Queue: 2 jobs
Job 1
Amino acid sequence: MTKELEYSATLTGASFSFLELKKVLKLKREGLSDSDIKKKVFEENLFQYEIKTSMKSVFPSVMRRANALNEELQQMVLEDQLELGKIINLYAIMKTDRLFFEFMNEVVREKLEMNNYLLEKKDINTFFIIKSEQNEKMAKWTEKTVAKLKQVYIKLLYEAGMIVDKKTGELNRLIIDEGLKSHLNIMGDTAYLKAMGE
């Protein structure tokens, strides 16, 4: 469970990175090891980034997400509809980032449970203030880091289809495929479904 993970600000450099995840999963399917995948991604610039440093900050997060998905979920990302793949990517981000999971679970889920479809700046600000009061490591983060994370969280929700409009913060309830729901429940990952508003 995500609880064992430390709070991290790595999402400031990784964001949604869905196409990158698909590329890594294709290479995994071909039987390449993690180190071979890394070598291929960097040598052939598979993410097609103009700036190499961007790849350095994105790749570790994408690799962690790919490794958080079992074969069935990997197959769904590669073969099913785009929307389903994006939901699985959102799940993988929660699975590999404790702070983002807690944000989804404590802010977004609660909003959706109360049929409140407005994610306001104050909701995000309050979440970060509470967490930094509870966690020494987070308390040391710069204002710039926290501001960037807040932006990234909104962007993640927008790219996953959970926010309709980044400016207004209007939330949208995801339509999650029954097969995916059942699979995550069997895996014991119901908490992640709930965090997505199920």
Job 2
Amino acid sequence: MDIIKVFADNVKKYRLVLGLSQEAFAEKSGLHRTYISAIERQKRSIALDNVQKIADALEIETHLLFIDGEKTLNE
């Protein structure tokens, strides 16, 4: 499993479910838009405190960002 890809895909999926642009989501999470963009494009690793900020802004449990949805669907 590529944890960076799984995390990036989940951030984008949950952000879109909330109907948030990267800019609106960045503001909600207290992170910069380019940082959010880089995470979603798998160009950045992320510190644990920022993982928590993202989960809080998405209003989800942190562990959900690390579940491989594709793998779950294909099993």
